[in-house]
Amino acid sequence: MKRIFLTLAILCCFTILTKAQFEGSKQIFESPKLKETIKAQKIVAILPFEVKISYRKQPKNFSAEANKSQEESMAKSIQSSMYTFLLRRASDYTVSFQDVDKTNILLKKAGVLGKLDETTKDELAKILGVDAVIGGRFETEQSKSEAGAIASAVLFGGFGGKSGSGTMFLTINNGADGELLWRFFKTMDDNIMSSTDDMIERMMRKISRNFPYKS
C-alpha cells in the first residue's frame, strides 16, 4: 500500500512540474488605442500561423522538404485549434471569428496564402473583409528524436516526456490601418503526448483574462 501511495505522489509531483514548465515566461503588449479601437470591430479572422521546427541535433535522414511540409501542416493545425477554442466560447467575446476554411480559401484566391509575410495586415483584412486579423508564430526546437521522446513517455507511465521547447507569438492587428493592437509572447515546453488542440487549450486558458475581445 505504501508503495502505491508513493507512486501516486511521484506521478502527482511530475504532473505539477510539467504544468509549471509549460507556464514559461510571458509578455503582453497593449496599444493605447486598443480598447477604443476594438469597440467598433465585429468580425476577426485568424491567419495561418508561421511555424519553425528546428533540432538541437539534426536527426538522421533529415529531409528539409518533409520538415517544411510538417511546418505548413502545423501552421494550419494551430489556426484550426485556435478557431475551435474561440468558437466554443463565442458567447464570451464581443466579436465573431471568421471560419478558418473561408479565410484560407479567400487567401488562396488572392494568391497570398503562402506569402503572408509579403502582405500587410491591412491588405489581408481587406481581402478577408474583416475588422482585424489574429496572426502568430510558433517556433520549436526539438531536443530528442521521436523515438527518444516516446521512450520517455513509457518511462514516465504514459504522461509523456519533455521533447523540446517552444515560443509562441500571438498578435492582433487593426484591419483599417494594420496597426498592432495587442501582442502576446510565451515560452513553453513541448511534449510528445500533447496534441496541438491541447497546447492551444492550455495557452488560451492562461491568456483568457487578458484577451482583448473578452466581454
Short précis:
This is DUF4410 domain-containing protein. The protein has helices at residues 2-23, 34-38, 64-88, 100-109, 121-128, 146-155, 196-207, and strands at 26-30, 43-46, 50-55, 96-97, 132-142, 162-174, 180-191.
Describe it for me?
- The chain is α/β, with parallel strands linked by helices and 215 residues long.
- It has a single domain, classed as ABC-type transport auxiliary lipoprotein component (Rossmann fold).
- The chain contains 7 helices and 7 strands; from the N terminus they run H-E-H-E-E-H-E-H-H-E-H-E-E-H.
- Strands 1, 2, 3, 4, 5, 6 and 7 form a 7-stranded mixed β-sheet that branches.
- The model is unreliable at 5-23 and 146-162 (pLDDT under 50).
Number of helices, where a helix is a run of at least 4 consecutive DSSP H or I residues? 7
Task: Output the CATH topology.
Answer: Rossmann fold
- Content-based structural category: alpha/beta
Return the string of H and E elements: HEHEEHEHHEHEEH
Give the overall silhouette: globular
CATH class: Alpha Beta
Report the sheet-strand fraction: 15-25%
Find the CATH superfamily: ABC-type transport auxiliary lipoprotein component
N/C terminus separation: 49 Å
How many individual β-strands?
7
Helix content: 40-55%
Total of domains: 1
Regions with pLDDT < 50 over 5+ consecutive residues? 5-23, 146-162
> Using only CA atoms, what is the Rg?
19 Å
